[in-house]
Amino acid sequence: MRVLFGRVKSFAAAAALVAAAAAVPAAAPATAAAAATGTAPQVYGAWHCSDDACTWATVRDMADFDRNNHWLIDRGDGRPSVNLAVLSFVNPLTLLNGTTNSANTNGVPVGMNQAVVNYFTSHGVRVMLSIGGITYTDDWNTALAQNATLLGQKAAALASQLGVGIEIDYEQSASPNTAGLQAFIDAYRAAHPYDASGADPTARLTIDVAAGDRWLIDLDQYATAHWLTPGTPVLDYANAMVPSRQPSATDAESNWQEHLTGKANYSPAIPPLAPAKFTGSLYIAEGSKARPECTDFSSSVQNATGSWTQNAAPAGAGTTNGLLGYMFWAAERPSTRGVTTDPPNSCEGGVGAGASAYSVPVPMPALRQS
Asked: Residue span of the signal peptide, if any (predicted)?
């Protein structure tokens, strides 16, 4: 609960402050209800919180793991519902210190092990580990100040160990340590250079930004200007995170458009972000109820935003239309008291149906670069 509650609480506070590769069967054609001319999603993933509210503090029994998560690898016809699973979260300070205790081994949650990674990759689903989350913001600050380069090296070694990519979830809203984060990224890229082909899973390095441009402003500005430019990319892409509650389709599109347009009136200005360099995010489980994103694609926000998402035009950066795709928060148990995506709330009818409607490629292809 503390991880998800912290994230939601922070967005609510921010709003007030701102005024607010195994073979898998071929994909089926898009359904008429969701078909839209434009660029189909390439990234279609879920953050995953295990069964303990995002701590991954116990080794999972894989039979139980499959019962709770089978929908991710089988939308009902043998094809995965997603092409990416992001295991959330690794504590950056614990990773830097190489902590070993009941919940971690050498700084890594014991539940984030090879068996879980292989569960997904054996079905063509890419895996990444998310470092951070709102709960670990102070630990990000401490770790970056203590030894950002070593933290980047340890993240790179972890990626090599498990054959995964890394997501940066650093939710410091005021004066983030961008110099330290730059050193972290430089150290990671020294071990795993940028790979436009996407063939090397360890080379996938991404970052989370806010739903729009009005929170995490300094981080958003720096990342857009220095790490997400199509001509000289450093990070593969950014995820525009979920807001404090599930948005309407209009509000979701408005948030995402802020990234496309940037904020020229800010000082320093936030430059436009290429559509091919970020995903939009929606809830599948929120509070006490599963969203239509989980259970009923036809009435979901992702269905309502599908045409916009696939056709969103560059507004100063990039050359191709369409966001990179969708991310969903979050699989299994994102909070201790909220709804889970375990059966009977598994998400074949929402995320899985969307994967069919949008002809989501599994495995994930080489991503558009501009």
From this structure: 1-32
